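Tutorial sheet, problem 5. The two components below are modelled jointly, 744 residues in total.
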Amino acid sequence: MDLEIVSIGNEVLEGHTVNTNAAFLGRELSRLGYRVARHTVLPDRVDAIEKGLKEAMSRSSLVIATGGLGPTIDDLTTRAVRPLFEEGIELKNEIGTAPGLFYPGLILLPGPPREMERMFLEEALPLILEQFALAEPVRHRKSCGLCLLKEVEVDPFLRDLQKEEPHVEIGIYPSQGSLLLEFSGSKKSDLNKLAQRVKERFPTFYFEESHIALAVQKEFIARKKKLAAAESCTGGAIAAKLTAIPDSSLYFLGSLVVYSNQWKEHFLQVSRSTLDHSGAVSRKAVDEMVKGLFHETEADFAVAVSGIAGPSGGTRDKPVGTICIAIGERGHKTDIGILQAPKDRASAIDWTVQTTLGALWRRLAHQAYTFS
Amino acid sequence: MDLEIVSIGNEVLEGHTVNTNAAFLGRELSRLGYRVARHTVLPDRVDAIEKGLKEAMSRSSLVIATGGLGPTIDDLTTRAVRPLFEEGIELKNEIGTAPGLFYPGLILLPGPPREMERMFLEEALPLILEQFALAEPVRHRKSCGLCLLKEVEVDPFLRDLQKEEPHVEIGIYPSQGSLLLEFSGSKKSDLNKLAQRVKERFPTFYFEESHIALAVQKEFIARKKKLAAAESCTGGAIAAKLTAIPDSSLYFLGSLVVYSNQWKEHFLQVSRSTLDHSGAVSRKAVDEMVKGLFHETEADFAVAVSGIAGPSGGTRDKPVGTICIAIGERGHKTDIGILQAPKDRASAIDWTVQTTLGALWRRLAHQAYTFS
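Model answer (structure tokens):
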């Protein structure tokens, strides 16, 4: 069954707010097997809201709209919708003021994400499942991840897989330095077979979890090992990514964000001579950072990164985007790479986080060296 | 002039990717005075892409579409659009493979955000400004921020301001623990006057920059002071937020992400007795973390946070969302608060980062104590 998501609000149209509501609803509904046919964002104007909602309702069996339900002057959705229906079912808002409304073919939810998400899951979804049964056979989904690989390195193999299983839809979603694959189709066994084929083709890059930080956490907890980090150019982003996940304290000891050279010396005993002669962005510096972590803490594994995230600080020998990564396991040789990240600052940081976690995961789960 | 933004891709429809491309384009175009009338997201199907683009072009003078231009299996935009036009101008892609296309009334840009943003700013925008002159008088915009305030604390004052200047559009965009205000109108002087009124009403909460981390950085660099952080529950997110900004190394020494209690003792000399009797989430613990930072480093200012981000770890006395924040200036009394953050983990972390930076900024710029 086709459905559409409509978001109402100038703040979304003008980019002050990123449309996470539509992403949430799209994810929840497509996971259940509903086909999300379109997202639309409309302005805070009664005529535009009415026109946009009517169009969507004429195309699709169900429209879910968010925003514009509050008591303030720019909340106009209710005014636009009231003339269209005789009556609707009120949906409780447990954590905000504006209730939602469930009309035949149209559901109105509030704009603030936490209110919307709770009302959708607790109030609207049971009614949707009851009134809009999935006529088509349920579509199953299976996703998996590939760390450290680029889309072009995987695409030819996926095209071959597609020929083998033409009825399975294959999605490939790249983010900085890792890939999410999604297979969907009517037979679970087909999807599992394809995931297995990917695993066989890229055995030490394949992971089951929805992202690499979660794969790292599961592996650490299963192996009862502890991790420490030392970050320069990522400035805490590795630690922030890992600790965003509940229960990360079960394996993650902490990170020394040694942004200045004094801190590298003081907390990790990186030698003055290394900093003076090889520089803070060098194989030697990240090697000493890992040694410092093992010396100062009880970690079983340690990662260290240092690089030039830019936009300034690049030199001829070490241009912006030069990144050193070290992956250490106590008692073993440290795996060290000097790599080229994307040149803009935000991408360079994100890429370094993903690449470090990918290499750490391969070392932990497969005893594989990525850089050496 | 009305224009629309269309994003193509199942990964956006199904919520695997949040639509930051539409937010970026909406922000850039509305800032220039173009009216963004609608965003639409379409699936990876040639017929749906063609239909959606035709509808948008029939409603609006210009449609900007992103995604589906690449060489891979699910990139179908070019195939859908080719029959509609005789020829277009190719737009260079400096950092990716797929070029963009500029047709009469339709611009195609690639999906990866960095490629899209660069192509839009460098290649497409000059052509848009040339071919789609703004008929209406230019709308000016002025934005400012308010840290540590909630929408309800500011809204009544804004309603009064609106009465004074009915022709100015006032936007209020809350994020966790801070507010962005935006004024837009035809007269620059009106906007500056309103911003000045806000500043007079909330003098120690008002900042000029687009976000609080940038306000903190400018203030530190202007005052030639150095900052150190110690993070437990935020897990590196404070450091990551600060170091996302170029030149943060001019004032930011680093952060000790002491996620485990051993690290709090070892690196910051938090006493065993404090951890045993008051706990890691206590006024005493964050006070000792600040003292440890001043003892170990040359920082002029130090911030420390410890809290229960959840979902587990809450107790009756300290439920999930209990957060301790300490703001220290060397030689002065430390400002310490024990606060209640939102209860979901991601919001709690984000709220703590915003609140810490807001309180730090008030201490630095106005010598104001926020919590004591």
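Marking note: Chain B is about 40% helix and 25% strand. Full credit if you identified this.
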